[in-house]
Specification:
Layout: E1 21-28, E2 39-45, H1 60-67, H2 92-107, E3 114-120, E4 125-131, H3 135-154, H4 160-174, H5 178-189, E5 194-196, E6 203-205, E7 212-215, E8 218-219, H6 224-230, H7 233-242, E9 250-253, H8 256-266, E10 270-274, H9 290-303, E11 307-311, E12 316-323, E13 326-334, E14 337-339, H10 346-353, H11 375-382, E15 397-399, E16 411-414, H12 421-434, E17 438-445, H13 452-455, E18 458-464, H14 469-472, H15 482-490, E19 501-505, H16 510-523, E20 528-532, E21 535-538, E22 541-545, H17 551-558, E23 565-569, H18 572-578, E24 585-590, H19 606-618, E25 620-629, H20 633-636, E26 645-649, H21 658-665, E27 669-676, E28 679-686, E29 689-695, H22 710-723, H23 728-737, E30 750-753, E31 757-762, H24 767-779, E32 785-789, H25 797-805, E33 812-816, H26 829-840, E34 848-851, H27 854-864, E35 869-874, H28 878-886
Parallel strand pairs: 19-23, 19-24, 20-23, 24-25, 25-26, 26-27, 31-35, 32-33, 32-35, 33-34
Antiparallel strand pairs: 1-2, 2-4, 3-4, 5-6, 6-7, 7-8, 9-11, 10-11, 12-13, 12-17, 13-16, 14-15, 17-18, 20-21, 21-22, 27-28, 28-29, 30-31
Helix pairs in contact: 1-3, 2-3, 2-4, 3-4, 8-9, 16-22, 16-23, 25-26, 27-28
């Protein structure tokens, strides 16, 4: 950053306003290191303002508090973390946080969390995190917040009213509708996973093979044919008529002349309505003359090119909901209206009613719409000689709409218990006739408790995807659990609503452990979805290729309708960039935390890296299990973060490990290595029982016990399977059939016995992983041991030197680079750094070689091999290296 600007009383801060800017905004759509819920993160820069506090800018705080007084008090800090709850914001980052939170509150969204996660004026950097209800709104609130701060610096009008109005409109446009919200809330109360796609509004309930989909109250059970029938009001009437149900007479018209002829033919009164419309749009109400038809025609025709002209039916408007062939709710809908007091006008009476928070457009929990005081209401009132300024008599009811839709200000009275049994049966017949799983029937009848045939009742419409908030929140009467009935249809009692989700993280061993867990479940007969650094798999089939350890890959697995168990490798990068791709997991495995990727994305220390990895432990369900490495203090400490049960593993004996021994004494579960009849044994201890899985030496993944670094992976995978009910015998069978190879574990300790010697290819890329690889090579019998090592250029110099020194026990060492992994370094820089570090440690220079390209280094290493040699290669392009090795031919 440039040298700090000197400020004095003559400085014009208005000219520096444009320095205050947001340079990056991103949504983390799952639990993350900052918050275990979705957040929007904004990076704020202040330029030459960085070294001055907001309160030191003359007049700035006065102007800001004048437009947003709510940011001043502790109570009004709303979702801000305790560190930010001060009387006044002390930094530019805190100012932006307070303003954004206040804008969200004013727009009607619930504000739950906000924090300045990085506050570093010396580097002109503030990172502001805000939890969101709708990401689009929070993103815009942050941008508008920065704009308001700039306006206050300039002394200009901050235009708060227009901003809040636009944010409120944006919030209501982007959030789910009331029916979808009711369904989401009901599913979450039952513990059913909910995943909503904000782009199309589709809600996924459940995961994998248990998933169902919703769009409002349309489900993946909903018949396309039934939906097509009900979208055509005339077709619906014909279907109902064929099964003997009473409907109003009528026909369809495409021209005004045709509508006039139909009206004269069926006789007045009539009504006009579009062939396909919702929420009462274009419906005329009662018409008694041909002039009335002429007047109503344009409004109906504007909604659809075909208009239904039908006999106007008398009776009270009822909405009946049928779910899965059974009536579950009925309300009588009352059109929007006011009750006169002899003093106030209709307009004033309506405005008074609209002050009810339950009718507020800014109240996300409002169950009623505001009374309509618009041109359509004026036109409706004109039929009886009134205007909005007319004053009705005391007690007089004045209706504002002909239809009783809740969306146009109507109210609802529950009548479910009053329905006559015959009427229930007829409504169920109607829903079945059109073929809908969930149907909303509009019934006109003077009395729902009297059989339809006795009082001239008619069914005027059948609707797919009916609104249900009027039933869950009626204005009068008993609320009905319509969402519960829908969920019972989608998930009959006893049906699973989710699948086991096993999440794996750690610095080293993630991919092998993930593949092993998936293998265990496949061998046990479960259809398994897998996301790992190699790609996304369903069973053994590669669906998507690439390093897929973030939320996109998790979504692919969890949305696959065949997946019965999901196994998700989760890397630090994905957590930091986007958050997790799931809300909770049944098993969270944390293998280890060692130095890797430090200095990247704000992670400078191993302890900070542990905070990131610990997110996995933090999202384990209360009924789930956190599988933690008891030998790693940073991982062991994660037990305090998890809501789940602790399960520990250690490569020591349980009795020799105080932590594990104490855990077992209190009834816990642990995996360990213990001496047995056949040498060192892989053991699970639980509930006082000791389950021997296999000897270390006989499990293929250990290469006869030489690959000791695999023990953590094997124990963690075995514990994950055991906690999900897999028997020790089944686990043993899976361990014995998991053969390390380029097919089973590509790039992970792939061993090739060639005509010239043994070659090991591994993806190891940090100090701990390469150290384990060198230990493994040292345990193998060999005439000479040759290491071919490289490191990505974005690692710290100290880490690169440390890796080089790990090869000091080898007979020859080759250092290489790869063009794709130089990452800002000059060609040859990393290889030279490694060669110098190894030579400085006393390794002979003549036994060190360096290459600028991986392929050249591999050709050289393979060319120098002699029978009995072992060559270990840390491969950047594992496929290309493998091709070179396989060209030598197997022994």
């Amino acid at each position: 950053m440039a040298a700090a600007t000197t400020f004095d009383s003559t400085t014009s801060f208005a000219t520096l306003a444009d320095d205050l800017r947001i340079v990056n905004v991103r949504a983390l759509r799952g639990p993350n290191v900052t918050h275990l819920a979705p957040i929007v993160v904004a990076e704020l820069r202040a330029g030459d303002l960085a070294h001055v506090a907001p309160a030191d800018v003359p007049g700035f705080m006065t102007r800001l508090l004048a437009v947003l007084p709510g940011i001043a008090s502790d109570a009004a800090a709303h979702g801000a973390s305790s560190s930010s709850r001060r009387a006044l914001p002390l930094s530019w980052g805190e100012s932006l946080l307070r303003v954004a939170l206040e804008l969200e509150r004013l727009a009607g969204t619930p504000v739950t969390f906000g924090r300045v996660t990085v506050d570093d004026p010396a580097r002109d950097r503030w990172t502001v995190a805000v939890a969101y209800d709708e990401a689009e709104l929070t993103t815009e609130a942050l941008h508008e917040g920065a704009r308001i701060l700039r306006d206050c610096l300039r002394g200009e009008d901050a235009e708060i009213e227009d901003t809040v109005r636009e944010l409120t409109r944006l919030y209501h446009r982007s959030r789910p509708g009331p029916t979808t919200l009711v369904m989401i809330e009901a599913a979450r109360r039952r513990g059913i996973p909910v995943r909503r796609n904000p782009d199309d509004g589709i809600v996924q309930l459940g995961l994998g093979a248990t998933q169902r989909r919703l769009w409002s109250t349309m489900t993946d059970f909903t018949s396309v044919i039934g939906t097509e029938i009900t979208s055509d009001k005339h077709w619906t009437k014909q279907v109902l008529k064929r099964v003997g149900l009473a409907i109003p007479d009528g026909e369809t018209a495409r021209t005004l002349e045709g509508a006039l002829e139909i009206a004269e033919d069926i006789g007045f009164p009539v009504l006009l309505k579009p062939l396909d419309a919702n929420n009462g749009r274009g419906i005329s109400g009662r018409i008694d003359t041909l002039d009335g038809v002429r007047d109503a025609w344009p409004r109906a025709r504007a909604e659809h090119e075909v208009v239904v002209v039908e006999r106007f039916a008398e009776g009270n408007d009822h909405r009946v909901v049928v779910v899965n062939g059974r009536v579950v709710a009925c309300v009588e809908r009352i059109p929007a209206h006011v009750v006169g007091d002899g003093t106030l006008s209709i307009r004033a009476l309506g405005a008074d009613v609209n002050r009810d928070p339950n009718r507020s457009k800014t109240n996300p929990n409002a169950s009623l719409a505001p009374l309509p005081l618009d041109e359509l209401t004026e036109r409706f009132l004109a039929r009886t000689g009134r205007t909005l300024d007319s004053v009705p008599a005391a007690g007089e009811i004045v209706y504002l709409r002909a239809t009783a839709n809740i969306s146009t200000g109507g109210t609802a009275i529950d009548r479910t218990d009053e329905m006559h049994p015959t009427n229930r049966a007829l409504c169920e017949l109607a829903a079945g006739a059109v073929g809908l799983d969930i149907a909303g029937l509009d019934v006109l009848t003077p009395d729902i408790s009297v059989p339809f045939r006795e009082n001239g009742a008619v069914i005027i419409e059948v609707n797919a995807s009916p609104g249900i908030r009027m039933h869950t929140h009626p204005d009068n009467g008993v609320p009905r659990d319509v969402p519960g009935a829908i969920l019972d249809m989608l998930y009959p009692p006893g049906a699973p609503t989710t699948i086991p989700l096993i999440a794996i993280t750690g610095t080293n061993g993630k991919t092998t452990t993930t593949r092993l867990v998936a293998h265990l479940f496949r061998q046990a007969g479960f259809a398994t979805g897998l996301a790992t650094t190699d790609g996304v798999y369903f069973q053994e089939h590669l669906l998507l290729e690439g390093d897929l350890t973030g939320p996109f890959a998790a979504n692919v697995v969890l949305s696959h309708p065949g997946v019965e168990v999901a196994v998700i490798e989760t890397a630090r990068g994905g957590i930091l960039r986007s958050g997790l791709g799931y809300d909770q997991c049944d098993v969270g495995i944390v293998l280890n935390v060692t130095s890797d990727h430090l200095g990247m994305r704000g992670i400078e220390t191993v302890e900070q890296l542990a905070e990131v990895k610990g997110v996995i432990a933090a999202v384990v369900k209360p009924t789930g299990y956190a599988v933690l490495n008891a030998d790693d203090p940073l991982v062991y400490a994660m037990r305090e973060r998890t809501p789940g049960k602790w399960v520990f593993f250690t490569t020591r004996s349980a009795v020799d490990h105080p932590i594990v021994a104490g855990h077992l004494a209190s009834g816990g579960i642990a995996g360990c290595i213990e001496r047995g009849r056949d040498g060192d044994m892989l053991v699970i201890r639980a509930d006082g029982h000791r389950h021997e899985l296999a000897s270390v030496a006989e499990v293929p993944l250990t290469f006869g016990g030489a690959a000791k670094f695999q023990l953590e992976n094997i124990l963690a995978a075995s514990l994950a399977a055991y906690t999900q009910g897999m028997s020790p015998e089944t686990i043993r069978a899976g361990l014995m059939t998991f053969i390390p190879s380029a097919a089973q574990t590509p790039g992970r300790v792939n061993v090739f016995d060639t005509a010239r010697g043994r070659v090991i290819i591994d993806y190891a890329h940090n100090v701990a992983a390469i150290g384990a690889l060198m230990e493994f090579v040292g345990a193998l019998p060999a005439k000479r041991r040759i290491a071919l090592l490289g490191m990505p250029g974005d690692r710290r110099d100290d880490d690169i030197r440390a890796v080089a020194r790990l090869a000091s026990s080898m007979d020859q060492v080759i250092f290489k680079e790869h063009d794709a992994y130089r990452r800002g370094r000059a060609p040859g820089e990393v290889a030279a750094l490694m060669a110098d570090a190894l030579a400085a440690a006393g390794f002979p220079r003549e036994r060190i070689a360096t290459f600028l390209e991986e392929d050249e280094a591999v050709v050289h290493a393979l060319g120098t091999m002699q029978p009995g040699d072992v060559v270990a290669i840390t491969a950047d392009d594992a496929e290309a290296v493998r091709a070179r090795v396989e060209a030598l031919g197997a022994t």
